[in-house]
Specification:
This is ABC transporter ATP-binding protein. GO terms for molecular function: ATP binding. By secondary structure, the protein is an alpha/beta fold. Helices cover 38% and strands 22% of the residues. The chain has nine helices and ten strands. The strands form two sheets. It has a six-stranded mixed β-sheet, sandwiched between helices. Strands 2-1-4-5 form a four-stranded antiparallel β-sheet, with helices on one face. Helix 2 runs parallel beside helix 5, helix 4 packs across helix 5 and helix 5 runs parallel beside helix 6. The longest helix has 25 residues. It is globular and about 75 Å long. The structure holds adenosine-5'-triphosphate.
């Protein structure tokens, strides 16, 4: 067994099922996320990846299954029993497929909005801009600047977010989620719509989070190069079922994974080429 699979793991889902109007979207899905590791979720369109993330972030209620999350005191909490409104306080942050940042604000101010649930100042102090409120604001800004530095955006902290190219806006969203000081970060297709250079930058940001041991991460991604470069483990779903959870190398050479991605026809063509090459003849004339 992989060491990440043994306690103390950080997050474990077991036997998760979800249906919509008789259509089973998740069927007995299980996964394990190691402490401060990155777990990729991959699979063809409609495999149930976003639905799984929606179950973890309490947008969807599963019909069966459990999700345990490690608490700061070292015990485990049943995530599905926590009020959905309390998830941020328990350190769960998420980004969405479509960018959801505030267009009228600067980069830094967007990131600051991620910290709202951490602020403890009183209304009257805020109104009068008294000592505690001012101190809290300074600390918050310093922490947000550190996060911007981590994701490579400190140079554009003061820029209006609308002036940034798409790839940078995706990193602003990542920075805002990090400003929540999460213990679990859920990323839904962080590289969707990005060019190669922008994908490399978001991958570098995810790796920086991992190396700084800030939080455990789960990410849905279609870009297998990004997945294999940043993920410790990969969970493969197809038609709502788990095909495999393993390290990226094992996953990319798993026959069911190849078949799910390329289809049975492509798989049999690959098999034919392999057989022909093994016999020593030219596959193109076979
Ligand atoms: N709220 C919903 N109501 C009805 N069906 C839903 C709902 N959410 C998801 N589904 C269905 O569940 C299935 C899985 O969808 P999901 O978005 O989880 O897949 P996915 O693997 O994330 O796909 P993609 O890679 O295209 O984003 C699809 O058939 C989808 O239509």
């Amino acid at each position: 067994m992989n060491p990440a699979m043994q306690p103390p793991w950080f997050l474990r889902g077991e036997g998760l099922s979800l249906s919509f109007g008789g259509v089973q979207v998740l069927a007995d899905v299980s996964f394990t996320l190691g402490h401060q590791e990155v777990l990729g979720i991959v699979g063809p369109n409609g495999a149930g990846k976003t639905s799984l993330l929606n179950v973890i972030s309490r947008i969807y209620e599963p019909s069966a299954g459990t999700i345990q999350i490690r608490s700061p005191d070292g015990g485990y909490l049943d995530l599905l029993k926590l009020p959905a409104t309390q998830l941020a306080r328990h350190g769960v942050a998420r980004t969405f497929q479509n960018i959801e940042i505030t267009p009228d604000l600067s980069v830094l101010d967007n990131v600051l909005t991620g910290r709202h649930h951490l602020e403890r100042t009183m209304f009257v102090e805020d109104m009068l801009w008294l000592g505690r409120s001012r101190r809290a604001d300074r600390v918050a800004r310093e922490q947000c600047r550190e996060v911007l530095d981590l994701v490579g955006l400190s140079r554009v902290a003061a820029a209006p977010v609308t002036t940034l190219p798409y790839g940078m806006r995706k990193r602003v969203e990542l920075a805002r989620a990090l400003a929540m000081q999460p213990r679990l970060l859920l990323l839904d297709e962080p590289a969707a719509g990005l060019n190669t250079h922008e994908t490399d930058e978001i991958a570098a940001a995810i790796e920086a989070v991992q190396q700084a041991r800030i939080c455990s991460q789960m990410l849905i991604e279609h870009d297998m190069e990004l997945v294999t470069s940043v993920c410790d483990q990969v969970l493969v779903l197809n038609y709502g079922r788990t095909i495999v959870q393993a390290d990226p190398h094992t996953v990319t050479s798993h026959p069911e994974v190849v078949a799910a991605y390329l289809g049975p026809a492509a798989q049999s063509e690959i098999d034919a080429v392999v057989r022909t090459v093994a016999k020593g003849s030219d596959p193109s004339t076979a």
